[in-house]
Specification:
The protein is mainly beta. It contains no helices and 11 strands. A hairpin with a 4-residue loop joins strand 7 and strand 8. It is globular, with a radius of gyration of 13 Å.
């Protein structure tokens, strides 16, 4: 069992930055990779970025590549999503997700979900 708790969402203006955190816990947490997904109103949940605990492998959606950076603190079992140059279309609920061994990039890949944190970007 893996527990995921997101934090750091909020209301910002276009062009601003925001950093989300995902605190992961559980006896087997290190066997899991952590990804961020997001879901905008009326749209399907989509992959944003993912990272592995054991090395520096990362993966980004094309829509955020170059603007968002995923990183980790192994000592704290926490994954961060640094979001820069935010756009109104980045407005969504952002979810932390865990998958055993490899990075989850589709909904069907995910073993565990966090509760989500709202990010709103005003024009």
């Amino acid at each position: 069992q893996v527990q995921l708790v997101e934090s750091g969402g909020g209301l910002v203006q276009a062009g601003d930055s925001l950093r989300l955190s995902c605190a992961a816990s559980g006896r087997t947490v290190r066997y899991y990779t952590i990804s961020w997904f997001r879901q905008a109103p009326g749209l399907e949940r989509e992959f944003v970025a993912g990272i592995r605990w054991t090395n520096t492998d990362t993966n980004y959606a094309e829509t955020v590549n170059g603007r968002f950076t995923i990183s980790k603190d192994n000592d704290k079992n926490t994954v961060y999503l640094q979001m820069d140059s935010l756009k109104p279309e980045d407005t969504a609920v952002y979810y932390c997700a865990a998958r055993k061994w490899t990075i989850a990039t589709t909904l069907g890949d995910v073993d565990y979900w966090g509760q989500g944190t709202q990010v709103t970007v005003s024009p």
